[in-house]
Model the fold of this input.
Amino acid sequence: MERNKRLTEKVKKYCRKVGIDIVGFADTKHYNRFPEDNQPQNYLKGSQTVIILGFHLHDIILDAWNQNQKTGKSYHFADAILENFCNLVKKFIKKQGYDSKIISYSPGLFLKDSAALAGIGPIGKNNLLITEHFGSQVRLRALTTTAPLVCGTPISESKYCKECNICIESCPASAFPDGKYNKDICRPYAISHLKNLSENTAIWCNICIESCPFTKIEYKKIFEKK
Ligand code: B12
Ligand code: SF4
Ligand code: SF4
Done:
C-alpha cells in the first residue's frame, strides 16, 4: 500500500500549528503482537496508521488527577488537553477525506509501545518512553485513522540508558528488582504515597521521570530561556 507523503507533511504542519509537542505515526501492521482488544482494528476497521500525540508536562500540576469521592468520576488535566488535541486532529483528517477514531483510555492501545513503534523514542530503563526534547516528562494519547500516512521506524533499544542506572537507584519503592520494572511493587507504593493537593486532587509518584538526566536537561533549558 502506497503511503501519502504530502498528506503526512500536512498533518505534521497542522499539529505544529495548533501547538502539539510531539506527533508520530505507527504502521498498524505492527499491532498483531498485542492482545486483540489493544489493536487499532478493534476501534476502526480499515485503520492504516496510529497517530500518537505527546504533551509535555512543563508544570507538574498538569499531572494532577481530580476525583469526586462521592461519584467516583475523575479527570486528569493533561489527558483532557490531549483529548482536545485528538479532536482537532480528527477534524483536520476528516477534511482530507479520511476517518479516524480517538482511542479510549480502556482497553486502549499501549501508548508508550506505540510511541516506540512510531520511532518517537525508545523505552528506557525507567520503563517509559524517552523523547529527545522532554525526556520521559510527556503524557500520551492516540487516534487511529484510515489515512495512509508515512510511518516512523520502530526503536527497540535505548541509546540514553547504556551507562546509566539513575532512575532504578532513585525509585523509592525499589520497583526495579534485577533492573526490570515490576508493577506489583510500584503500584501499591504509588497509591499509598499520593501527593494530595486537595481533598479531591492528587499527583502520582513521578520520581522515575524526574530523576532521569534527559528530563532534567530540558527543564534546565526551559528555565534558562525564561
Ligand atoms: C497500567 C498503567 C500503569 C500501571 C502499571 C504500569 C505498567 N507499566 O504495567 C501503574 C498504575 C502502576 C502505572 C504507573 C505509572 N505510569 Co502508567 N500507565 C498504564 C497504562 C494504562 C498501560 C501500561 C501497559 O500496560 N503497557 C503495556 C505493557 C506491555 O508494557 P510494560 O510491561 O509496562 O512495558 C513493556 C513494553 O514497553 C516492552 N517494550 C520495551 N521496549 C519496547 C519497544 C517496542 C517497540 C515495543 C513494541 C515494546 C517495548 O517492554 C516492557 C517491559 O516488558 C498506560 C497508558 C496506556 N494505555 O498505554 C500508562 C502509562 C504507561 N503510564 C504513564 C506514567 C507517566 C506512569 C507513572 C510515571 C505514574 C504517573 N505519574 O502517571 C508510573 C510509572 C511506572 C513505570 N516506571 O513504568 C504514561 C507513560 C508516559 C511515558 N513517557 O512513557 C502512560 C503512557 C500514560 C499516558 N497517558 O501517557 N501505570
Ligand atoms: S512511579 Fe515511583 S514507585 Fe513507581 S517505578 Fe516510578 S519511581 Fe518507582
Ligand atoms: S535515568 Fe538513566 S537509565 Fe533511567 S531512563 Fe534515564 S537515561 Fe535511562
